[in-house]
Amino acid sequence: MSTKHNFYAGPAILPHDVLKKAQEELLDFNGSGLSIMEISHRSKDFDQVVTTAESKIRNLLGIPENYSVLFLQGGASLQFGMIPMNLLKGGTADYINTGSWAKKAIKEAKLFGIVNIAASSEDKNFSYIPKNIHFSPNAVYAHITSNETIGGIQWKTFPDTGNTPLFVDMSSDIFSRKLTVSDFGIIYAGAQKNIGPAGVTLVIIRNDLVDSGADNLTSMLSYRTHAEKHSLYNTPPCFGIYIIKLVMDWIEQQGGIQAIESTNEKKAALLYESIDNSSLYQGTAAVQDRSTMNVTFRLTSEELESQFIKEATEAGFMGLKGHRSVGGCRASIYNAMPLEGVEKLVEFMKSFEKKSPVD
Question: Which of 53, 209, 221, 266 sits most deeply, having the most CB atoms within 10 A of its CB?
Fold first, then answer.
């Protein structure tokens, strides 16, 4: 098989070692003679998987005891509605609008209360993180998207919301850098970028928020249900949780979050430096807000962009086409993307520039 470099935004690259381990155990998990996809979610074998996955997540992120770790389904998109459904109760919530995913969260929240747009970067096509933020005095919570995959922008420091709990969608940068969990009321993330395969949503929620959730909800949409049953109220996405456990093993083997963050910074710096020193490529995000996960850029013409993507794909660099809503190019360099993959991409970009006319 020819070498492929996976730069897709999601579902995204998984560590090679994780895929190999899953392959080895696929037909016989833990000596059971059955696949992980066949065993009961009530069995001792699976209980060990889900318990170990949670324990490793807690250790890696330093999650305090007064937080629940939940493995849910429905992606971040379900959390856009589940959060206000449980907690807003007709009150006011502050949302900061930084792009497509923030806008979707805002749309859902408006069904359950009043939404105050505390800040927005829509005026410049979501190319920066807004700094002039106007929080409400009596907001139930404030909500941000830590990293916007489409615009390629990322919060480098998180806003101070005082006594108002801060909720954050970290789908595309969780486990990519150090953070203090106690600074947040809720952290949630779809697994398919930095944690595991599509189909699992990780929710880290402070227990007082679980307890304060609305009472008149269907069981599956209540955080209380899942916290009380330790994510096993119904059949969970067993295979996905198993892969998450393997990814946590892999992060530990790399040296933990600090080592992952260091490598991510090197990858991003290398790629951005190549773009900045070029006359063919131009970054689209404000320099101070550039994402370390999703590097967005344009070429000098759409024709050259199409040719670049075509030749890159033929050379084994997959998923470099920008999101359909904005066009251009995007290289997603999540945790599992090795430094060597970025180095190879930079070599290809330089080679393509040498043979391409620049006006």
Answer: 53
Q: Sheet holding 294-299: strands in order across? A: 281-283, 294-299, 329-332
Query: In the prediction, which pLDDT does 6 show?
Result: 98
Q: Give dist(CA 197, CA 12) in Å, integer.
A: 8
Active site residue 215: no
Whether 193 sits among the annotated catalytic residues: the reply is yes
DSSP state at residue 4: -
Catalytic residue among 56, 94, 155, 169: 169
Domains and CATH numbers, the chain: 16-254 (3.40.640.10), 256-354 (3.90.1150.10)
State the catalytic residue, choosing from 94, 101, 155, 173. Answer: 101
Residue 357 has a pLDDT of: 73
169 is catalytic: yes
Res. 314: pLDDT tops 60: yes
pLDDT at 1 over 60: no
| Active-site position among 56, 193, 267, 321 | 193
